[in-house]
């Protein structure tokens, strides 16, 4: 998929230089290992396998990035196969009547960890020059998505025993990496950075307002939201036809839903008026014609749904009451890929625990079931992620009280490695200099941005922090419908 998208967008759909590519071109040894897709994205334009080592789910299979002869020889010497194992039972997501997996992704991740610790790190040490290696752990993410501890129930949700086993699995793999770094005598010259991609929430499929939820489908429990409910509700609300882009643009039957949640809305699927991209805890809506009046109608349909919590509209479409512009959440960049007209944030809440961000729930547009796991909303449960680092370029026993995000890691790593990356657009993020020896704490500003209310009183709100020009988004949506964004006090 990454190769295909690159071909559609001038050879590099990101249109920016990645850290591993910059490191490779600067003469460092580079490798990326782990989950297919996210691992390769760190150097996705290098597809020969001769310069950056790539080991993922597709390794040794048709379509995978090839292994160099030297890498194959070293795998054999470590008694490791050249073909990566599959996820096995961990990949089983179940369905509305069969629970998903009850096991962590132990076997596959053990292979990736062995490749990192027994092959790549020793090889890079032999080379005697600086290196950069990514190890992308599918756990706990993959297991949280598929776990079967809570079929159609919100508790224990993502806090059940299968998720805990996945966290333990990731923890054990990290321990193996740290042990290898120490055993190889690299601790004094190697930084290890750990981050999660996002937080996580339990899936809800409940709605009292959705037309889609009032219909019947053969494999969806009664009165629960089907996959593609946004596309279904929009097509119904706009009085337009709905077509499935993942089924050769066939019309969606009255008792069916789009096969992967995505939808083409209009009279002609070759020239849709509205395109919906299903995206888990949020959906993206595209308006190919840039019609401002249609945008207002789409907002009207969506804001009436109880599963919506905040709408963000392309700045070019002008102000619409109850919404904020995409620029308010830094989604209006100079990307070469199409920009959505409307970003839809879904309702989130908590099941009630000591730390609400650890038992968050979100309505999600997904083929997974209620009770399984998802992310992608503006809930604080999803935006709150863990980050940590150890090594010669970081302070010891230091807790950074300033906001930080994954957007900062690229610039932090580039500074540590002395990489000079020329930006094509204005990338968000900053070097986390306060976490480095003798670093000074930056000034932090807290901001709240509010839209004008619509006729029903809906107001989209963003709570954020700023360090210089770098934004950090804590939570956004309609107050009271987003975890971390309390309801507005009752006004006289």
What would you say this structure looks like, in words?
The chain has 492 residues and is α+β, with helices and mostly antiparallel strands. Among the domains are: 2-190, no CATH class; 203-351, no CATH class. It contains 10 helices and 20 strands. It has helices spanning 2-8, 19-25, 69-77, 106-127, 141-146, 161-183, 229-238, 292-303, 380-383, 406-417, and strands at 29-34, 52-56, 131-136, 192-195, 201-204, 241-244, 250-251, 263-266, 274-277, 282-286, 308-313, 324-325, 342-346, 348-350, 360-363, 373-374, 387-390, 445-450, 461-467, 470-477. The strands form 5 sheets. An 8-stranded mixed β-sheet has the order 7-6-8-9-10-13-11-12, with helices on one face. A hairpin with a 5-residue loop joins strand 6 (241-244) and strand 7. Helix 7 crosses helix 8 (292-303). The longest helix is centred in the middle third of the chain and has 23 residues, at 161-183.
Topology of this protein?
Blueprint: H1 2-8, H2 19-25, E1 29-34, E2 52-56, H3 69-77, H4 106-127, E3 131-136, H5 141-146, H6 161-183, E4 192-195, E5 201-204, H7 229-238, E6 241-244, E7 250-251, E8 263-266, E9 274-277, E10 282-286, H8 292-303, E11 308-313, E12 324-325, E13 342-346, E14 348-350, E15 360-363, E16 373-374, H9 380-383, E17 387-390, H10 406-417, E18 445-450, E19 461-467, E20 470-477
Parallel strand pairs: 1-2, 1-3, 5-15, 11-12
Antiparallel strand pairs: 4-17, 5-16, 6-7, 6-8, 8-9, 9-10, 10-13, 11-13, 14-15, 18-19, 19-20
Helix pairs in contact: 4-6, 7-8
């Amino acid at each position: 998929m990454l190769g295909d998208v690159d071909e559609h967008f001038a050879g590099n759909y990101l249109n920016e230089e990645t850290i591993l590519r910059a490191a490779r071109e600067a003469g460092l040894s580079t490798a990326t290992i782990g989950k297919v897709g996210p691992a390769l994205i760190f150097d996705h334009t290098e597809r020969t396998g001769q310069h950056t080592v790539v080991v993922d789910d597709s390794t040794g299979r048709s379509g995978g990035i090839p292994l160099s002869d030297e890498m194959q020889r070293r795998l054999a010497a470590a008694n490791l196969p050249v073909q990566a194992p599959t996820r096995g039972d961990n990949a089983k997501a179940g369905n509305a009547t069969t629970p998903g997996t009850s096991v962590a992704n132990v076997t596959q991740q053990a292979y990736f960890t062995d490749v990192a610790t027994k092959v790549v790190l020793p090889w890079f040490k032999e080379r005697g020059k600086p290196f950069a290696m990514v190890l992308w752990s599918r756990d706990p993410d993959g297991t949280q998505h598929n776990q079967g501890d809570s079929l159609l129930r919100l508790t224990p949700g993502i806090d059940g025993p299968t998720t805990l086993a996945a966290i333990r699995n990731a923890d054990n793999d990290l321990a193996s990496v740290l042990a290898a770094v120490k055993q190889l005598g690299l601790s004094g010259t190697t930084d290890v950075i750990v981050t999660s991609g996002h937080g996580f929430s339990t899936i809800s499929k409940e709605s009292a307002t959705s037309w889609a939820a009032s219909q019947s489908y053969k494999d969806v429990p009664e009165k629960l939201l089907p996959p593609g409910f946004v596309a279904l509700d929009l097509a119904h609300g706009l009085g337009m036809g709905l077509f499935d882009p993942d089924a050769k643009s066939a019309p969606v039957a009255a008792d069916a839903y789009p096969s992967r949640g995505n939808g083409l809305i209009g009279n002609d699927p070759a020239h849709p008026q509205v395109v919906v991209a299903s995206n888990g805890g949020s959906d993206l809506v595209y308006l190919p014609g840039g019609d401002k009046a249609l945008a207002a109608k789409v907002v009207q349909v969506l804001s009436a749904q109880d599963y919506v919590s905040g709408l963000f509209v392309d700045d070019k479409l002008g102000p619409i009451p109850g919404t904020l512009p995409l620029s308010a959440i830094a989604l209006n960049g100079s990307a070469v890929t199409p920009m959505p007209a409307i970003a839809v944030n879904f309702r989130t809440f908590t099941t009630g625990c000591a730390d609400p961000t650890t038992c968050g729930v979100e309505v999600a547009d997904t083929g997974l079931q209620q009770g399984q796991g998802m992310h992608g909303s503006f809930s604080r449960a999803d935006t709150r992620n863990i980050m940590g680092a150890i090594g010669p370029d970081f302070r010891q026993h230091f807790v950074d009280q300033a906001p930080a995000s994954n957007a900062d890691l690229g610039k932090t790593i580039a500074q540590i490695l002395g990489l000079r990356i020329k930006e094509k657009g204005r990338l968000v993020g900053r070097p986390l200099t306060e976490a480095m020896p003798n670093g000074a704490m930056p000034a932090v500003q807290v901001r709240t941005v509010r839209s004008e209310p619509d006729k029903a009183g809906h107001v989209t709100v963003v709570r954020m922090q700023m360090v210089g020009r770098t934004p950090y988004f804590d939570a956004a949506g309609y107050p009271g419908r987003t975890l971390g964004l309390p309801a507005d006090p009752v006004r006289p």
